[in-house]
Amino acid sequence: DIVMTQSPVSLAVSLGERATINCKSSQSVFHYSKNKNYLAWYQQRPGQPPQLLIYWASTRQSGVPDRFTGSGSGTDFTLSISSLQPEDVAVYYCQQYYSTPWTFGLGTRVEIK
Amino acid sequence: QVHLQESGPGLVKPTQTLSLTCTVSGASISGSEDYWTWIRHHPEKGLEWIGYAHDFGSVHYNPSLTSRVTISLDTSRNQFSLKLTSVTAADTAVYYCVRGVRDNWFDLWGHGTLVTVSS
User: Fold this and answer.
1) How far apart are alpha carbons A6 and A56 in whole angstroms?
2) CB within 8 Å: B47 and A104
3) pLDDT tens, B50-80?
4) Closest by Cα among A14, A1, A12, A26 to A77
5) How near does any CA of chain A get to the CA of B14, in Å?
6) In this structure, are strands B79-84 and B59-61 parallel, antiparallel, or unpaired?
């Protein structure tokens, strides 16, 4: 199984400041023939199910604000929130869909400082 | 708008079978190219993909659960179901029914249902 490791476990950021979340996969999730990274990011607000933010490592799902940016390739990925808003308080998960079983990171909790 | 809603018992005794149903509204699972998926969330272990069923006939399960799990579609009711046999306390989790799309990212989630395994 591909192990997804997220860091930090939690972080506190002031409103309007940048939050950066890291995700590392135990093997590359880059699909050479399709030239794509098979990685997604999800946001889970308190009391809600996870919600898709980004797929292909950097493509925002429809309706996701452009302050959310995914980057990285191969085994190292980053989710950035450029200007933290109150509604961004949540746990964020990365997921690989390169090979089954699809696996998730343990999550990063983002709070307001 | 497409919605997924889980239903089933919230308490299951050890060694029994956990059975959940997901009702899909706003879209037909019949003829769909999507992957009708179950994912669970353990408090400590995080999110775990259980498996999917596809209307074109394929099913695929997590190897860690494949001996105990069955996912099936009921296209006449626009539902899909999960059965997990021989449950233990380790199967206590929030269970989500989810739509997997394209190469298997997950764009729609039910609200989740807590299933506790306890005598």
Assistant:
1) 17
2) yes
3) 999 998 879 999 999 999 999 999 999 999 9
4) A26
5) 26
6) unpaired
